[in-house]
């Protein structure tokens, strides 16, 4: 495989590419095939699904832009942050960017009223939860008691619940 192929493969392996590009393409292809070359929509649900698609993506994008200058590191966890961010959206949930991915996936399932997209949402949620558990181990090793205290104050996923 040439350099371009490796770069493309690396690009495809990025989490945002998978969530915001590949998953919608796979759902559209699946639904298209399932319904013999047409896409079937339930008109009542399309606007709600599209709203969640937009909100999920914008949450990911804007929270990433909020976090980067405050924490350093990279958009993912490949380059760990230089400090803990416990302000803004991080006061309410420890993983608002990942939560944006899942909100987007829920919007995909609702917009297409697709059981296949719902299965993808569940699979992505399980995958993100495993990633969060690994991220938390690395962050606790890096920041020690400060991160442990943050974990005690702020819920992992849903503010006040989970």
Low-confidence stretches: none
Following the backbone from N to C, one meets helices and strands in this order, namely HHHHHH
Average pLDDT figure: 94
Query: Beta fraction of the residues?
Result: under 5%
Apparent shape:
globular
| Fraction in helix | 55-70%
Oligomer: single chain
What is the end-to-end distance? 44 Å
- Rounded to an integer, what's the Rg over CA atoms? 18 Å
| Secondary-structure content class | mainly alpha
Total DSSP helices = 6
Largest sheet: none
Strand tally: 0
Write the layout of secondary structure elements.
Elements: H1 3-13, H2 15-34, H3 45-71, H4 96-111, H5 115-143, H6 145-153
Q: What do you see in this structure?
A:
The protein has helices at 3-13, 15-34, 45-71, 96-111, 115-143, 145-153. It is globular and about 55 Å long. With 162 residues, it is mostly helical. The longest helix is centred in the last third of the chain and has 29 residues, at 115-143.
Main features:
162 residues, mainly alpha, 69% helix
In short:
By secondary structure, the chain is mainly α. 69% of the residues lie in helices and 0% in strands. The mean pLDDT is 94.
């Amino acid at each position: 495989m040439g350099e371009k192929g490796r770069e493309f493969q690396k690009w495809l392996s990025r989490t945002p590419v998978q969530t915001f590009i590949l998953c919608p393409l796979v759902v559209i292809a699946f639904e298209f095939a399932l319904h013999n070359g047409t896409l079937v929509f339930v008109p009542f649900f399309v606007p709600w699904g599209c709203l969640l698609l937009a909100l999920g993506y914008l949450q990911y994008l804007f929270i990433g832009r909020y976090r980067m200058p405050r924490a350093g590191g990279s958009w993912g966890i490949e380059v760990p942050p230089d400090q803990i961010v416990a302000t803004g959206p991080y006061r309410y949930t420890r993983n608002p960017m990942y939560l944006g991915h899942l909100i987007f996936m829920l919007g995909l399932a609702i917009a297409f009223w697709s059981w296949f997209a719902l299965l993808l949402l569940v699979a992505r949620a399980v995958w993100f939860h495993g990633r969060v558990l690994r991220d938390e181990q690395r962050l606790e090793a890096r920041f020690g008691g400060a991160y442990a205290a943050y974990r005690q104050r702020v819920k992992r996923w849903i503010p006040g619940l989970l």
